[in-house]
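Exercise 7. Given the encoded structure of a 282-residue chain, write a plausible sequence.
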């Protein structure tokens, strides 16, 4: 891949973009309906430019779980929604289905395409906005937990970011984490994550959004690209410092920088900010 050309002619971000970043909602036995209801209220109050859900919509990829996830997404339908699959969105114990038709329920209820390119713009024909490239990092036959990205997916990302208008925000979305969580506990990165991280500057990527580790991590790659992991937004499966807690990331992008605030759910107050981090201008 020739990653040098993709960043040619890049202009500063020309509009403010707000992103509601969720992950690991886990409809099923671990799901919190109270957190889900509060999350929808939060979205309608904040009115984001886009909602990103970085995988694990379900707990066991069952039809009833996907139907509940679909109803949840329909409640956010007035906003552009970018979604990708996670390892829990393919069957684990239904081995025959995992081998022969791992994405059948995901395609039927969520999205037919597994890798997507979504442009969010203020109005028709506008040359300002954001491009989200969401890549399916699940690998149901070879790397069930840790996932992988294939060369053709990286080539799709390179082309898609390279074709984006110069002033667009460029966001890569994958479920599996490309970096170690900051506390060094559970969360082995995606297989061959380094080659993806090394490609980001050449693609002109402004940030990476992911999940999988069930706790928020706001970090930078060695090249200075923000890599933002969201916790579990609506389940009881938080890990490490977020054990038993649910959280989401609220991201605001301006020409002068990126601000991320991690919000945690409480039954009394809904989702409220507790900590965050700022990054330099994209």
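Solution.
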């Amino acid at each position: 891949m020739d990653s040098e050309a993709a960043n040619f002619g890049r202009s500063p971000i020309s509009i403010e973009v707000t992103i509601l970043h969720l992950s690991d909602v886990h409809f099923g036995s671990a799901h919190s309906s109270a957190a889900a209801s509060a999350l929808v209220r939060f979205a309608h109050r904040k009115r984001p430019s886009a909602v990103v859900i970085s995988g694990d919509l379900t707990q066991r990829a069952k039809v009833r779980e996907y139907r509940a996830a679909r109803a949840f997404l329909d409640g956010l339908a007035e906003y552009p929604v970018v979604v990708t699959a996670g390892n829990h969105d393919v069957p684990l114990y239904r081995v025959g289905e995992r081998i022969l038709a791992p994405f059948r329920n995901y395609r039927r209820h969520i999205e037919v395409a597994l890798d997507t390119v979504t442009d969010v713009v203020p109005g028709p024909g506008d040359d300002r906005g954001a491009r989200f490239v969401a890549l399916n990092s699940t690998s149901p036959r070879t790397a069930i937990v840790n996932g992988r990205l294939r060369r053709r997916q990286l080539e799709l990302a390179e082309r898609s970011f390279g074709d984006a208008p110069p002033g667009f925000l460029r966001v890569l979305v994958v479920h599996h984490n490309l970096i170690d969580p900051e506390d060094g506990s559970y969360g082995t990165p995606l297989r061959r994550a380094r080659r993806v991280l090394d490609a980001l500057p050449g693609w002109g990527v402004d940030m990476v959004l992911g999940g999988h580790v069930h706790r928020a991590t706001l970090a930078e790659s060695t090249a200075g690209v923000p890599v933002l992991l969201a916790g579990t937004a609506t389940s009881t499966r938080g890990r490490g410092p977020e054990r038993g807690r649910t959280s989401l990331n609220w991201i605001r992008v301006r020409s002068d920088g990126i601000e991320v605030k991690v919000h945690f759910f409480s039954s009394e107050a809904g989702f409220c900010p507790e900590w965050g981090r700022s990054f330099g201008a994209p």
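Remark. Confidence is low (pLDDT under 50) at residues 1-9. Students should compare their own answers with the one above.
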